[in-house]
Amino acid sequence: MLTESSRQQDFxxxxxxxxxxxxxxxxxxxxxxxSLAQYGQDKLLGMDGRLLHAKRYEDVKVKTAKFFxxxxxxxxxxxxxxxxxxxxxAALRLKExxxxxxxxxxxxxxxxxxxxxxxxxxxxxxxxxxxxxxxxDLASLLSPNTKFVNTSLVSFYNGFRIDLDEVSQxxxxxxxxxxxxxxxxxxxxHELNLQGADLIVSSTHKWLLASHGGGLVGVNPERADEWTVxxxxxxxxxxxxxxxxFAGVQPKKGAASFSVGMPNYSVIYAIDAAxxxxxxxxxxxxxxxxxxxxxxxxxxxxxxxxxxxxPRHPKNSSAIIAFRHPDFELINEALHDxxxxxxxxxxxxxxxxxxxxxxxxxxxxxxxxENALQIAN
Length: 377
Description:
Layout: H1 4-10, E1 18-19, H2 30-43, H3 47-68, E2 75-78, H4 81-92, E3 99-103, H5 108-111, E4 122-126, H6 135-139, E5 146-152, H7 164-174, E6 178-182, E7 199-203, E8 215-219, H8 265-281, H9 283-302, E9 307-309, E10 320-324, H10 328-337, E11 340-341, E12 343-345, E13 348-352, H11 359-376
Parallel strand pairs: 1-11, 3-4, 3-5, 5-6, 6-7
Antiparallel strand pairs: 2-8, 7-8, 9-10, 10-13, 12-13
């Protein structure tokens, strides 16, 4: 995808190291850092700079909508996926007898808001079988009382990628529930077809290659009334500065209600540049250029004395490869000593491959992993 020259120019911090941890932290291209600097210059203008900030804000909504398959008016911006899901919790107005379905391969942001003390809903867990989520198991959990089903498009835990069409059809056939999809581990890395989703959520500091402090929200316009967040603020309100506010506030509908206060404009500048960078290359091109690397890595890891986690079928695979080993911390330390960066957590090691990775990165990782396993064993 990148030439050696363009890789050095866009990602100079990758020189001399093998970075395979994008599913935790993406490495921003230089254009994102330049955009952050531009935010600083625009902020120096005071209120005149606010007009430039607002332009970027609207640009990000337009560009995000293109990735999500929505319109700009269907996009909301907040601070992170956790905030988005807690606002979604407020919008759902769950009551006794309502049911929510989550799964055990999901990141806590999308799985825990419904589990807090005081939540009236019954939470059901769609459990994986050998690292795979089967839609038949989901169907058995659904009922006329199911209010909401949430899942990640790609699991942070083991890289399992759901068949969103199958999941959406299963939800529609067995319940009146709305479907939420967290695309944090896919946005900027895999092509998205999100027509079956009612709520779309993403953080911005991973595969998108932007920065912390951003949360992207997409709302199916047909369900905007149901995704209207009943909270105070100002940007999310129709009558924030009207005298009528003292009689009662009127939240904006749908996605706009997720933007409750002053936007984090510095992050918006970063997101704007990151969306431009990803779009200039093309997600399809990123995915195609890395397929060989993902296969090489998966086959190389599978040949070693580790327990490979996650999907076996290609349709459910992603850019994340995870495996388990009793001495995972020792292995991680040995890899880090060789300037190889992966994620080691909760008994597993997770490898993630983005467009800035090379075949030499994967070969170096596999060579050092084999040596580390020999030491551990």
